């Protein structure tokens, strides 16, 4: 459940997505077409996705006779997703897609993920795998594997981690042994493989990172392979099994609807893998996909918190409990929960986190559109630096938001009679997969803010400053603009300090604190942009939706009053370059 | 799993619990006796409690034929608890107890709760119910109901909430209708009743809040009743069923081993209740018990996070993953997780939260001992003001700590193969029950800091200042002492501002932010006290356990560097008396 009014505000008022239709790539679309996509997402969410959410959590996928089975209804739901044109939405028309802007697609995905994150996993991975092949694979591989994915006949997976190599991909061991045929022989095990098996599609296309023997060690010796569950004949028909075995299932705290598997390749027969791109260039291919995948994780984190917010708000509006502070007349009627200051605090925290997070992921999706429409260098730079933030900030703070949704509902929120407890469990995943929170932080501080002498960082600062300048004639927003300006100044100072620090390890030991503060400032910026739009609308003659816009201004005030100072405080701490994270000896945790 | 060395440090070095043996009440104990209690807790935890923790989470209690059944083994475990002398530990010898200091008992309870929170629920509620009766009930009721609880033959519950009245006890409706017999007829429903039925004891003693018709409305018209599951004859033998029905079970996200019930009283026959204390004085009796019960919740929150910390630390010490930043040699061996700065951050956050939280709950338990040994007024005042903090700070920040334990372990932490995901689910309860986080905040800011013209608050400040003064000749601790002093000054200023605010609603709208900052300052104080002891030990000739004490100093540094500034930042925000939590209209969340 997402507030459609908010989605439309962000897409069409803040991000002005309609302007994309002026670009050749998106010229076939107009506002009506975008509305129809959003309509369709809400219908699909309500009719197919949401009704299965609870059952997919409670009846986990089962492994029987080496195959994974999902609860009844999952097939129909993914079929409806494909039939509604979501699987092929963003691909080029030439590849069987419809060239929908990514920003509209992500908006629709948020609606669907909010309804059922378990199902979203299967189609999301297929989307990602097809994108990767369409970007990096040969025409032959595209035809044989990517096009059936775009058409929804094959589904996909990403096989990176191994039991001994999670965050450290340099240490993967799966081998790809050349043969005298056009394929390699794949041998090894992969861990944490989402959607690694199921009966939802005719075939499953695993994208597998593996080492060709004799290559360099570490990440420079990793290649990427297409490894289908069933082999595909030259005419496109399905052939024999390819010896990809489900060695076991991982049982998770949440996101239980998306099966998580241990896969074994080639243990009981020849498992064939087809090289994608150049040998030893596998990680580069994979990273090419990372921006979209990571923004997708951020969007998922937002979706899970957004729907919990809506549910807790709905509860708070209809649950009578207690009276105003100081009212001792027990015969007076009880107030609704929404009348209590602390409940308002919990609701406003959720509002600023989920709407701010949504604004951020849609902003990044809009950058993806700029990039795909016109190979826009500035968009690419901004996307590079914002991606770890758009992945991580929602994973961290939208989980916090899920926590508040439970709190609003008290004991009921902690019970399994309401969805908020499930959504909290689901969202705990997002700081872990697709690069942990700490890995994203190293990406931001270790690479992105340093790249090109800080080019992306300076560009981002200019963009924020332009928006600050943009509200300078709006007296009601000037105080927020000034706060943001001061926060950005501290961010610059902290960045300079950390980048200039001669000891790289010391600098990077502060990466996570830096990421969190950076994220808060980015979201404050999103709130200022929203407030700017809302303020204009309220000032317009014959104003409509005044409550909605008023809410945006109040949320902006709340974020700037209670949240932004935390980021500034954090930055001041980081500037001290404390070295205690480098010096803690292992024995000192418990004593010895 | 709790670090025994830490427990002993806090009890015997920081709190000097042995000195309690100089008091008449505790004169029968010595250090050896205390050690034996702790020994016994560790044995019981390992042999009886821990082995059942996972199974009690997975096989929830079942309702069959109107009765609740627990998994096999639960009976043996609680029997062992009783046999080890924990159920009667703190009661007076005259009441069948052994007069163990509460601080030692809480230390043991933390060990047991860390091993199995589900089992702890049954015995903890029995302890609380027996305490209440021993304080407030007639001799006859004590003999009939409290003594069998102390002996472990009967178990107890607390029946406060109703489906329509959670935080708002003023609105409970359960009725107690006088009869021409010495008992009342109880009619109504109670919600969220932990341990409301089971087969672990011969009988269950429900302590029920109900209204005697004709009494004043609201909380001034609530009385307290003993309502046994089975009636008790005058000779102490068990009589007929008392028409307390289990109307249903609530299924929770965590703490699943402690059954949670909806109870119906008198729906199918006469349910007899016996008045405890005076009519209409029920809530006062109940509140009398609150300090101990709330500290117990804080202790439980600490226990759940402490054991997760130990497990994630154990994992991090033995899991190789990745290399030092800048080391591109993939042939070099992988580092253990503990070598990575971000993992150290996650471990140190856990260390400061769980050890700081444990220090706080044990400090409060020690105050309970002062109070019981000598009716110490200062101890009572400190306890009053610290209780909402000792309940809430661990519930909030030890949950955060549980989150970090999962993060250290990555995908494994999110899987159900390790306990850390369960412990996170378990701990989410503690901010909800026994008075929500928001209710505790109102108690602190609305009552405790204002009571007696701020007498308790001023006393607390003097105690903190005395400890600051106490380390003034220790150069290495002076910077922390100065930081704490500055933070306390801001706390005083904020308290003055909020108390002086003429608009009570505005002042109290900041209660939760105030509570959180207050808690951080209290825990900083606990860290300074620990650092003071550790520093002395390190300076002593022939120092032993240097790693342990060094760890305490490093943790103190970490808390003061990274956590305390957050509290100061929060206080500065509160001083502005922003009124947005009072003015948010309901329509502004979503728009209309």
Question: Short summary of the structure?
Answer:
Chain A has 592 residues and is α+β, with helices and mostly antiparallel strands.
Please explain how this structure is put together.
The structure is a homodimer of 592-residue chains. The first copy, chain A, has 592 residues and is of the alpha+beta class. Chain A has three domains: 4-288, Butyryl-CoA Dehydrogenase, subunit A, domain 2 (Beta Barrel), CATH 2.40.110; 289-321 and 336-435, Butyryl-CoA Dehydrogenase, subunit A, domain 3, CATH 1.20.140; 437-578. The first copy, chain A, is 56% helix and 11% strand. The first copy, chain A, has helices at 4-14, 31-58, 74-83, 102-115, 117-136, 139-150, 282-288, 290-318, 341-374, 377-414, 420-427, 437-448, 451-470, 478-500, 504-508, 511-539, 546-574, 580-583; strands spanning 62-64, 67-69, 154-159, 175-178, 184-194, 203-211, 222-228, 230-232, 238-241, 244-250, 260-265, 272-276. In chain A, the strands form three sheets. In chain A, strands 3, 4, 5, 6, 7, 10, 11 and 12 form an eight-stranded mixed beta sheet that branches. Chain A has a two-stranded antiparallel sheet with strand order 1-2. Chain A has a two-stranded antiparallel sheet with strand order 8-9. In chain A, helix 8 runs antiparallel to helix 11 (420-427) and helix 10 packs across helix 16 (511-539). Chain A is globular. The mean pLDDT of chain A is 97. Chains A and B meet through helix 8, helix 9, helix 10, helix 11 and helix 12 of A and helix 8, helix 9, helix 10, helix 11 and helix 12 of B.
């Amino acid at each position: 459940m997402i507030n459609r009014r908010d989605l439309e505000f962000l897409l069409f008022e803040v991000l002005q997505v309609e302007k994309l239709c002026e670009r050749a790539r998106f010229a076939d679309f107009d506002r009506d077409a975008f509305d129809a996509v959003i309509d369709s997402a809400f219908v699909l969410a309500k009719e197919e996705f949401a009704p299965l959410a609870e059952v997919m959590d409670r009846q986990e996928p089962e492994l029987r006779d080496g195959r994974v089975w999902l609860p009844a209804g999952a097939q129909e739901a993914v079929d409806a997703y494909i039939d509604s044109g979501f699987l092929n939405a963003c691909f080029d028309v030439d590849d069987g897609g419809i060239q929908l802007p990514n920003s509209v697609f992500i908006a629709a995905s948020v609606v669907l993920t909010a309804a059922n994150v378990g199902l979203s996993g299967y189609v999301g991975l297929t989307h990602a795998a097809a994108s990767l092949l369409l970007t990096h694979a040969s025409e032959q591989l595209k035809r044989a594997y990517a096009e059936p994915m775009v058409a929804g006949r094959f589904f996909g997976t990403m096989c990176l981690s191994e039991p001994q190599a999670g965050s450290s991909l340099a240490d993967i061991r799966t081998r790809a042994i050349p043969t005298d045929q056009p394929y390699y022989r794949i041998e090894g095990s992969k861990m944490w493989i989402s959607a690694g098996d199921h009966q939802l599609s005719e075939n499953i296309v695993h994208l597998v990172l593996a080492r060709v023997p004799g290559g360099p060690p570490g990440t420079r010796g990793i290649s990427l392979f297409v490894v289908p569950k069933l082999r595909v004949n030259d005419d496109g028909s399905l052939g024999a099994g390819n010896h990809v075995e489900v060695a076991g299932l991982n049982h998770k705290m949440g996101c239980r609807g998306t099966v998580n598997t241990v896969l074994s390749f080639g243990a009981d027969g020849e498992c064939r893998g087809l090289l994608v791109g150049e040998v030893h260039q596998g990680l580069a291919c994979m990273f090419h996909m990372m921006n979209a995948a990571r923004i997708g994780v951020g969007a998922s984190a937002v979706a899970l918190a957004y729907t919990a917010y809506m549910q807790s708000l709905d509860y708070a509006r209809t649950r009578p409990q207690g009276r105003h502070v100081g009212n001792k007349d027990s015969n007076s009627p009880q107030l609704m929960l929404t009348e209590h200051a602390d409940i308002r605090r919990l609701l406003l925290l959720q509002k600023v986190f989920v709407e701010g997070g949504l604004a951020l992921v849609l902003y990044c999706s809009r950058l993806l559109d700029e990039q795909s429409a016109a190979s826009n260098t500035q968009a690419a730079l901004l996307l590079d630096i914002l991606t770890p933030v758009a992945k991580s900030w929602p994973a961290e703070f939208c989980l916090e938001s899920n926590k508040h949704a439970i709190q609003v509902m008290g004991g009921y929120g902690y019970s399994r009679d309401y969805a908020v407890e499930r959504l909290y469990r689901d969202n705990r995943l997002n700081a872990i997969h697709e690069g942990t929170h700490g890995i994203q932080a190293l990406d931001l501080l270790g690479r992105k803010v340093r790249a090109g002498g800080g080019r992306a960082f300076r560009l981002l600062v200019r963009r924020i400053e332009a928006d600050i300048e943009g509200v300078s004639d709006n007296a009601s927003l000037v105080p927020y603009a000034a706060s943001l300006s001061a926060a950005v100044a501290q961010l610059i100072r902290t960045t300079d300090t950390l980048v200039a620090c001669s000891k790289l390890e010391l600098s990077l030991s502060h990466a996570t604190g830096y990421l969190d503060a950076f994220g808060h400032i980015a979201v404050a910026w999103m709130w200022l942009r929203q407030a700017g739009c809302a303020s204009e609308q309220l000032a317009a003659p014959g104003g409509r939706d005044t409550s909605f816009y008023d809410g945006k201004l109040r949320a902006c005030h709340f974020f700037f009053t209670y949240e932004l100072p935390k980021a500034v405080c954090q930055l001041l701490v980081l500037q001290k370059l404390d070295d205690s994270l480098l010096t803690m000896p292992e024995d000192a945790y418990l004593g010895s």
